Recover the amino acids of this structure.
């Protein structure tokens, strides 16, 4: 009897959970195409979602994760273009989906993909070496003004989020840094801890280990409000103790990197709706909250209008920076 | 002796029936992905990561690292038997391993490779145990100029004593550097040499080239020789394994030297592939008498294998202590660490001693398990060579193409395998060395990035490569390795000429 009851409840729950539009459900194996190499931030993002979707049986079809990180992720987006209207290819990226075509001549356009949802935003923090003389971000800016082009500022990749942010700081304040691109946030973190560069703008979890050890020190975070409370990390300070850059007098309201999920353009609306709902359940799960806490990201489930607006805003602001730096290909 | 106590504690964590089982499973899985060219350890490990979410982090890392060791062992198998490197780091093993296997001594070649690999891993893990704290501080001193110096050293050590004609070596090297620069450049963000082909955006994968050059190239050469590859009639006997093990102590100097090279490249972090090439080059230079390298000399197998594994094990140290992975597999494992909620960094050793020392202790145990398991497979693998060419030839072609495809699931790569097969065939026929091309492909892009970064930091001044003791001494050592052999050679010729005059 008990089995019957449980079955009935489960069926009811399922019926309630299924929205009216979910006539579509994946039948063939799903490809999760990741716009980064294995082990990168986007890769962890996709694999965590894959694990939750599979374990909670939100997607019954098998899910295969493919890493297509070549050309700063362009490989994955080209793949989406080649597979237009195929609902079995889900693409995982950041803001690179809509920013890359502005700086490099590539065979795809942002319109070749359609956004499904954003699930988190990763913050950017200005870090300096623990024994550096700078106490606020303005100290660092003043130092760069005193010695134009002399202070080395490390970052991950070229013309990517990090260099864009450094350029934005320069354009806002008139300072002049010497930007040195490295290969990935972990590497930049070590370069800073070793004193080979003066500062970086790593995401929180890229520099967490070095902060725990007291090798580096955060100055400020480019977020509209302070970050979520955490256990003390070093010297009694946690993420919530980092002032926002605006508090310190740097006129940049916010600079964040969304973690986004896309489908190829031309996919039927039912498939988009299916993934929108599945990802909403992921975003509400405890595992997802654990993942956000472990990687020090901020949860932000955006979809539909909200997401389009977020993307449009972020694209307009960034393209202005590109144009001022002369990186724009248009 | 703090480290020793911690290690003993680690053994307590690592040796449980569950963990021993995970090690055996990991090593076996690793062997499978290592033997299949192209699949490789990074892919294998990333496939396993979602499965480890239910395990506790220590068990998970034991499973993943055991798989890595298994893949390193397995990678040498196809290098020796079919001239197809299963892993990038086992390319150098083909140079002498394949000729030895073809001369009917496949059991000997495989045993030498596996035993040296085990010894290398053991040397590496001993260094990790002793130097855990010191080595990570040392690695912090490496900025862009120091990185470039390390790559330069690897180039110099391998090229300095090249036996082929210098002009041909330069041609091969330049071809490799050219191929390495295809795709998006990290430092400038520009797309280079793709000629509008989207497939070339990610550059030309080193593994695809190697599978073509070695696997298909060798096959074409065999076909031209009139299908002489008719199954080598080698005796297959477990006693041969023991006899080879008994012969190992004779090569202790090569083992120790290669182990040191590997440890250096693992910590600095140049990576296992560079280590195996560098060690092979140095072994070739150090040997004075006997048959030539490249014809199946035991040292030619011992040197790259020992260095490869000691570098592979030591590469775990910068990953755990600094968060800098020095191999693709380490990068994937690091992604796993973050998902499990562990932060690689200097504090990991202090905050999670169970995890770190459990892993280090497991390296001792799983490498011993690995050596035993692979030695048991030697007769089985060696028997593969008795199969006539008409059967094994088509199989090798299939393996090469499957391997080439698996690297990045791109059908474009199949054309590259074919193209580089022809290139490999022509190179061999025309007596151009393949090794400098391969080395340039592995290190070219990294060396270029490090050089470019150094130039940005120094505003274009070359003096940055001699700006402190560390970088100057590495550069000086590299220059010495590049020039000294030529000088000695010249000096020897002059001295011999004097009596005549």
């Amino acid at each position: 009897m008990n089995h019957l009851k449980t079955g009935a409840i489960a069926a009811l729950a399922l019926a309630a959970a299924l929205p009216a539009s979910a006539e579509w459900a994946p039948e063939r194996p799903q490809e999760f195409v990741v716009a980064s190499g294995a082990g990168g931030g986007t890769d962890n993002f996709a694999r965590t979602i894959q694990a939750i979707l599979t374990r909670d049986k939100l997607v019954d079809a098998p899910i295969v994760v493919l890493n297509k990180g070549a050309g700063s992720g362009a490989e994955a987006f080209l793949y989406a273009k080649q597979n237009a209207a195929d609902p079995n290819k889900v693409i995982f990226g950041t803001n690179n989906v809509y920013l890359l075509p502005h700086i490099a001549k590539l065979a795809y356009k942002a319109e070749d993909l359609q956004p499904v949802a954003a699930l988190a935003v990763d913050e950017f923090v200005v870090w300096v070496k623990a024994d550096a003389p700078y106490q606020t971000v303005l100290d660092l800016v003043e130092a760069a003004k005193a010695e134009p082009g002399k202070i080395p500022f490390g970052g991950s990749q070229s013309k990517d989020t990090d260099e864009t942010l450094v350029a934005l700081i320069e354009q806002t304040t008139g300072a002049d840094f010497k930007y040195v691109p490295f290969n990935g946030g972990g590497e930049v973190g070590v370069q800073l801890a070793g004193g080979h560069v003066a500062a970086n703008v790593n995401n929180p979890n890229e520099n967490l280990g070095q902060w725990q050890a007291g090798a580096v020190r955060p100055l400020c975070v480019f977020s509209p409000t302070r970050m979520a409370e955490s256990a003390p990390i070093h010297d009694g300070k946690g993420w919530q103790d980092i002032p926002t850059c605006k508090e310190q007098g740097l006129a940049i309201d916010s600079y964040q990197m969304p973690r986004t999920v896309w489908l190829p353009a031309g996919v039927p609306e039912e498939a988009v709706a299916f993934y929108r709902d599945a990802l909403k359940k992921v975003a509400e799960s405890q595992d997802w909250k654990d993942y956000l806490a472990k990687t020090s990201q901020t949860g932000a489930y955006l979809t539909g209008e909200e997401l389009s607006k977020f993307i449009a805003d972020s694209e307009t602001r960034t393209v202005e920076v590109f144009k001022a730096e002369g990186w724009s290909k248009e | 002796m703090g480290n020793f106590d911690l290690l003993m504690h680690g053994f307590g964590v690592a040796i449980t029936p569950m963990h021993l089982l995970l090690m055996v499973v990991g090593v076996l899985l690793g062997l499978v992905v290592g033997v299949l060219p192209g699949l490789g350890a990074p892919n294998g490990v990333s496939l396993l990561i979602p499965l480890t979410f239910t395990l506790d982090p220590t068990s998970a890392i034991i499973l993943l690292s055991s798989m890595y060791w298994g893949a390193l062992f397995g990678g040498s198998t196809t290098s020796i038997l079919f001239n197809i490197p299963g892993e990038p780091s086992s390319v150098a093993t083909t140079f002498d391993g394949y000729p030895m296997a073809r001369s009917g001594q496949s059991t000997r070649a495989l045993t030498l490779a596996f035993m040296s690999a085990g010894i290398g891993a053991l040397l590496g893990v001993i260094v990790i145990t002793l130097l855990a704290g010191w080595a990570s501080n040392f690695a912090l001193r490496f900025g862009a100029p120091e990185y470039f110096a390390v790559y330069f050293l690897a180039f110099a050590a391998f090229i300095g004593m090249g036996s082929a004609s210098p002009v041909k070596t330069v041609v091969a090297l330049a071809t490799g550097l050219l191929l390495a620069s295809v795709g998006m450049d990290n430092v400038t963000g520009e797309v280079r040499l793709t000629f509008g082909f989207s497939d070339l955006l990610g550059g030309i994968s080193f593994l695809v080239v190697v599978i073509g050059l070695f696997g298909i190239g060798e096959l074409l050469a065999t076909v031209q020789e009139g299908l002489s590859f008719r199954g080598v009639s080698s005796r297959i006997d477990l006693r041969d394994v023991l006899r080879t093990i008994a012969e190992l102590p004779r090569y202790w100097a090569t083992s120790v030297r290669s182990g040191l090279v590997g440890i250096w490249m693992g910590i600095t972090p140049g990576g296992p592939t560079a280590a195996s090439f560098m060690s092979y080059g140095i072994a070739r230079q150090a040997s004075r008498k006997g048959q030539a390298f490249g014809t199946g000399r035991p040292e030619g197998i011992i040197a790259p294998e020992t260095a490869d594994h000691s570098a592979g094990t030591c590469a775990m140290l910068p990953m755990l202590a600094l968060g800098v992975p020095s191999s693709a597999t380490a990068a994937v494992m690091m992604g796993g660490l973050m998902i499990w909620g562990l932060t690689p960094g200097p504090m990991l050793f202090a905050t999670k001693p169970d995890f770190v020392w459990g892993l280090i202790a497991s390296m001792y145990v799983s490498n011993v398990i690995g050596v035993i398991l692979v030695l048991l497979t030697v007769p089985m693998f060696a028997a593969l060579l008795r199969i006539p060419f008409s059967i094994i030839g088509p199989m090798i072609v299939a393996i090469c193409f499957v391997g080439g495809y698996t690297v990045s699931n791109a059908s474009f790569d199949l054309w590259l395998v074919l193209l580089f097969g022809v290139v490999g065939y022509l190179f061999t026929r025309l007596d151009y060395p393949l090794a400098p091309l391969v080395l340039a492909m592995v290190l070219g892009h990294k060396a270029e990035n490090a050089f470019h970064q150094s130039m940005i930091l120094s505003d274009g001044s070359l003096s940055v490569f001699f700006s402190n003791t560390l970088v100057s001494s590495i550069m000086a050592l590299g220059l010495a390795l590049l020039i000294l052999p030529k000088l000695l050679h010249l000096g020897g010729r002059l001295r011999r000429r004097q009596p005549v005059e």
